[in-house]
Amino acid sequence: MIIHTSRFGAVSITVEDVIQFPEGLLGFNELRRFVLLDDPTDEIFAWLQSCEDPQIAFPLLEPELFVATYAVQLSKHDSESIGLGPDEGVRTFSIVTIPQDPTQMTANLKAPVVINVGKRLARQCVLQDNSLAIREPIFTRLQQRVVQNPHLKIKNQAVYKGVAVKLNRPPEVEG
Amino acid sequence: MLVLTRKLGESIAIDDHIKIRVVQIKGKQVRLGIEAPKDTKIHREEVYLAIQNQNQESAATSSESTKAVAELLKSK
Questions:
Q1: What ipTM was reported for this prediction?
Q2: Alpha-carbon torsion A30, B45, A90, A55, what sign?
Q3: Would the pLDDT of A174 be above 60?
Q4: N or C: where does chain A have the smaller number of CB atoms within 10 Å of the terminal CB?
């Protein structure tokens, strides 16, 4: 099937690529079907693109990239809503906000997107842990990553394998 | 919306396991004590509103600005 997106044009995906959000995301309750896109021309982010609204896509990062220890405690309701069985794994992503000054960019640690990879069910889980920030500054921590591994793209340190649909675009020539 | 009047020290019960008690009344502020099963999520409404705002801002991100981040990370 083809979905239309304002950022990436028409994207060909399979039914299995679709990630269902039975309750939508906060503020976007009417949107239930998303797909995770991996844009080869973007070195850092994965995009959570709505299949229903071409304009709506969230840049995501894996929280492990900027928080050493990030343990998500899911409530019973969280686990049930993504149909999580005892042997099933989840992938966790933080929704990122990039203001005019990108050095002020933040990630939402309080309410990550948790995906049951097997069942392709997901939910934005509001965690009870009050020490987690809704707007955690992350620029300098990403910068440290780049300094430590100058030759390794941030995206290659995070693996979206098995979850994201790779967009069919020519990769940028590396300098 | 169901509206109930409660005095200081009185409570309301929701379902069988959730109890909300008026602990203190001071001017325009009311302190509430909440007893609920461990798995119940309890947040001030502002938390949800702040997350909604963050989502709205994030959803408006252009693909140019994510690439600008990549450039900036490399240059600094």
A1: 0.88
A2: positive
A3: no
A4: C
Cβ contact, residue pair A108, B63, below 8 Å: no
Confidence band of A165 (pLDDT split at 50, 70, 90): confident
Q: Give contacts of B76 with chain A, Cβ < 8 Å.
A: 143
Task: State whether residue A147 is helix, strand or coil.
Answer: helix
- The SS3 assignment for A120 reads coil
Q: Are B41 and A126 a contacting pair at CB < 8 A?
A: yes
Contact list in A for residue B66 (CB cut-off 8 A) is 42, 44-45, 59, 98
Residue A13, phi then psi, degrees to nearest 5: -130, 165
Residue A175: is its pLDDT beyond 50?
no
Work out the mean pLDDT of chain B and round it to a whole number.
Answer: 93
Burial of A26 (0-12, 13-18, 19+ CB in 10 A): buried
Does the pLDDT of residue A154 top 80, yes or no? no
Q: How many contacts (CB atoms, under 8 Å) link A and B?
A: 102
**Chain B residue closest in CA terms to A44:** B70
Task: Give the separation between CA B68 and CA A44, rounded to whole angstroms.
Answer: 11
* Antiparallel, parallel or unpaired: β A165-166 and A33-38: parallel
Buried b (16+ CB within 10 A) or exposed e, A45-79: bbbbbbbebbebbbbbbbbebbbeeeeeebbeebb
